Structures are given as structure tokens and as C-alpha cells.
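protien #1 (seq + structre)
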Amino acid sequence: MIDIRQGRHPVIETQLPIGEQYVPNDVLLDSEHQQIMIITGPNMAGKSALLRQTALIVLLAQAGSFVPAESARIGLVDKIFTRVGASDNISLGESTFMVEMTEAANILNNVTPRSLVLFDELGRGTSTYDGISIAWAIVEHLHEQPRARARTLFATHYHELNEMEKIFKRIRNYNVAVQEQNGRVIFIRKLQRGGSEHSFGIHVAEIAGMPPSIVKRAGVVLRELEADNSQVGTNTRPSAKKLEQSREGVQLSFYQLNDPVLQQIRDEILGLDINNLTPMDALNRLNDIKRIVSPNGA
């Protein structure tokens, strides 16, 4: 069993601004009822910190040290395996995804029922459907294979993995809480029961200083994709036609218009010989185009 009550990250806690308190969390893992915790939640909510603090508390306890927690009951742990962070290995020609898979393979080939396994965003280096499939298969292996039945924390943005709780008896869904008020996201950083439906990645992009036009457009595209309700395991794909239709105000294509007036404007522009056009001719032609749009000169 690993039963940590009000655990904290010893490094992050010391670096907090004066007066700011670290938000502690409980983590319970055992081999009978809650072997695997699938943790979803927004970017910046604290999923990675939770994984790291659990590893540090377990390591300190195994060494006989005090631990940063209200209380902790830590059973024997023979190995701590982590697949955290994203990096490539250019010198060996290994992509980010290759590094992910190499490290994941090492974990699965060496894990024991007494191990602690921490996966953070496994599968993000490849396409969504490939990533979900691989993540699902790995979690299933850790649950079903007696020799690999390790206590596991699995942080992910693949909300489809929340379905595993309904199928496997020792998998439980958790999420790191947030509150959404007037379009703004407030990070609570508290672990709570149940899966999360949103990642709030667009909100994080806005905080990072992304141009407002891009943030706004991303919101439109997100709503279109969610409306399509694409599901894993089906042939449904986001509708490119809908995304094209939602581009009004972002980019207007003269080659996809049925309005006769706009077609006339297109023909006028395509008929211009830019290389032989004098400034006065350009002004006259622009005035002609303006008359097409507004025949009365308004």
C-alpha cells in the first residue's frame, strides 16, 4: 500500500512566494482496490507536480527519512519508474515519440508488483488515435498482467481513458480541480474523484501571450470539433467543410464564392496586369471595383 495524506512537493514548497501555501493532496494506491489512478485535468493544474511529489515521498520513506506529508504509510517499493517530460535524442536520431516508447518499453520489461510507476502524458508524441491506443494497452497490461501489477499514477489528456474505470476493477478516475468563472480558469490544484472533460489548453495559450486573434480562432475550431463528437474506434473525423465555413472573418477566398457581385470583383482583380499598371491606372481600377460594390457611390 501507498497511503499518503496531505502530501506536498518538498522542492516546489520551498520556492513558493512568501505567504503562499502549497496545496497538499492525498494519494492512495494498493494492489486490491485502487491499483491505478488515471489523473486528468487542465494544463498547469498540477498533475505533473502530484506525480513527482509522490515519487519523492516514496523515495524519502524508503531511505528512512521524514516525508513532507501529514502522514504516510508506504509499503515496500523495489523500483520507481517514471516516464515524465518530453525530449528527443538528436544525436542518435531518436524522435520524442521514440524516446517515449523506449522508456515505456524499459518500464514494462522490468516492472514488478512492488514497483511504483508514474506515466505523464504518454503517447503525446504521435497522432491522437495512436497515442490513445498505446496508452490504453499499457494501462490494461499493468492491470491484467500478474507480473506487472504495479501501483501506477497515469496523468493524461486522453479523456477517453476514463472509460477504463467501467471495465477494470482496480482503475479509478481522478482529476485536478479547477473553477471556470466568466471565461477565466482558476486553478484549485486539489485532487478529486472523477474524470475531467476539458483540458483548457486554449486558456493556457492565452496566458502565455498568444495573439488574441489566434486564441479566438482556436476557440471556434474547438467548438466545431466538439460538435462533431468524434469518438475513438469510429470512422468519424472532424468535418473540414465545417471548419472552412467557420473561417468567416479570418480568411475570405475569392475562389469559393457564389455571389455574382463578388465573382465580378474577382474577375476584375484577376484581369489586372500588375507589371504594366501605372499608379493612376491602379487608382482608376480600384475606383471601378468600388463602384461594383457600391453602385450609388455610397
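ok now protien #2
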Amino acid sequence: MLRIGVDAGGCSGFQYQFELVEAAAPEDMRIERDGATALVDEISLVLLKGSEIDFVDELAGAEFRVRNPNARSSCGCGVSFSI
């Protein structure tokens, strides 16, 4: 499963964290769609509300991309954001 979180840090204030895990933590909320399972902790859920997360595999590389309607701005690399 993919655990998605938000931590303080990065050049814009908050940064996304992605981790592949075998089991959910007690505080994780489970989100299932199209056969995939994502886990989000309660604190990160507030900052990710309404977000779309996609895995993109392009010639330049593969990555998870987050379209977060709560983010007011983000850094150039797209890893960190501010609210």
C-alpha cells in the first residue's frame, strides 16, 4: 500500500512524503480506488483534502504528482507547498 503524508519542511513550508508499506498504522485512513489502496494519517488528511494523486511515468522519469487544491503555492520541483 502507498502511505501518503505531509510533513513540515521543504522550501515552501510543507512537503509530501510517499512510502510503500505492508500494513496500515492504527491512525491511518484507508482510501481505495480502482484496485489501489492509499493510506493517509488524520493530520495529513486535512492538508490533502480534495487532492488528486497520480503516478506519472515519462521519459524524464517516474513520480507521484499531487494536485492539491489547498496549496496556495509550491516550489519549482513540486515536492513542497504552502497553504
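The mean pLDDT is 86.
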